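queue> pop job 88
queue> type: inverse folding (structure -> sequence)
queue> payload:
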């Protein structure tokens, strides 16, 4: 999740379609076993790869997500197919090929799409029209009067408040009509969330890991019933040799990555973990046979460095 240095179509390394520059829609992957459900993240022993979180929209969102940052073409499709074979349930970024060959029904997956803001203030009607045109690309085999998106996010708060208001109005219209089941934001700070007109976002996706905990945003989201998705939960491996992390990993006989994913889950976040490698996809899901003790959670909590601990572009202070 980095701010691109070139054209906005490079945002986040996602599969971004330039529908009418600078307005764009891109696709995320999220694990989705929709039958399991938790209401209190504190019940850690009951967590599984099938655990979901009920959003303020009433729909259920998977807790653990699979990202495909910078993955393209066959690499992306192979990662999706591998994950499906290993038991994941997820959205499909490449025109649904992996899903159509898996035997899974549409309601067995959770599709998340992002609207990529440009540098200018858009018209709300234009945003709405372009979001509607994203449906055939995401679900080519589904009749358009039956197609829907589980979660639509505004990728960032840029360029300004006027743009955010116009974009949010378009998402809210889609939610009211029902083809956007849940709507949310990404990289929004407390000021952005407070200024946003109704409805309250279902999700705010921000960088979250022990070294960048953004506690003010998390606290506000909790107060308002906004689910928190954590991107860069593995800190891009920049802290893999941290002495606190390595000691805790050794204690539980787990990898440093598994410890960070488990920390995120026990904090009540929805970690979005990137991988295109079969063994990593499997390893990242093997985090449900142990629970971090309170003292280990506290020690990881103490690693917080605030903004200095961030490993990605962070626009939460955008005016």
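queue> result:
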């Amino acid at each position: 999740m980095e701010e691109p240095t070139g054209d906005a179509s490079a945002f986040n390394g996602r599969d971004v379609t330039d529908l009418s520059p600078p307005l764009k829609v891109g696709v995320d992957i999220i694990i989705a076993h929709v039958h399991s459900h938790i209401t209190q993240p504190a019940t850690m022993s009951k967590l599984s790869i099938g655990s979901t979180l009920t959003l303020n929209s009433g729909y259920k969102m998977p807790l653990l997500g699979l990202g495909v940052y910078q993955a393209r073409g066959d690499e992306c499709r192979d990662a999706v197919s591998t994950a499906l074979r290993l038991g994941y349930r997820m959205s499909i970024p490449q025109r649904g090929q992996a899903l159509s060959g898996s035997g899974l029904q549409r309601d067995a997956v959770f599709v998340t799409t992002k609207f990529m803001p440009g540098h200018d203030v858009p018209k709300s009607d234009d945003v709405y029209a372009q979001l509607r045109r994203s449906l055939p690309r995401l679900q080519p085999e589904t009749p358009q009067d039956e197609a829907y998106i589980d979660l639509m996010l505004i990728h960032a708060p840029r360029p300004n408040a006027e743009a955010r208001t116009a974009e949010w109005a378009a998402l809210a219209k889609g939610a009211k009509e029902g083809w956007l089941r849940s709507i949310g934001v990404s990289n929004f700070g407390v000021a952005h969330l407070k200024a946003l007109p109704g409805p309250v976002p279902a999700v705010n996706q921000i960088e979250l890991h022990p070294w960048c905990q953004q506690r003010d945003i998390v606290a506000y989201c909790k107060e308002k019933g906004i689910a928190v998705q954590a991107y860069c939960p593995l800190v891009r491996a920049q802290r893999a040799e941290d002495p606190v992390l390595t000691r805790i990993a050794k204690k539980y006989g787990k990898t440093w990555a598994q410890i960070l994913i488990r920390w995120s889950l026990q904090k009540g976040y929805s970690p979005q973990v990137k991988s295109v490698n079969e063994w990593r996809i499997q390893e990242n899901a093997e985090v449900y046979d142990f629970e971090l003790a309170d003292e280990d959670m506290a020690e990881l909590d103490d690693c917080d460095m605030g903004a200095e601990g961030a490993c990605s572009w962070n626009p939460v202070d955008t005016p």
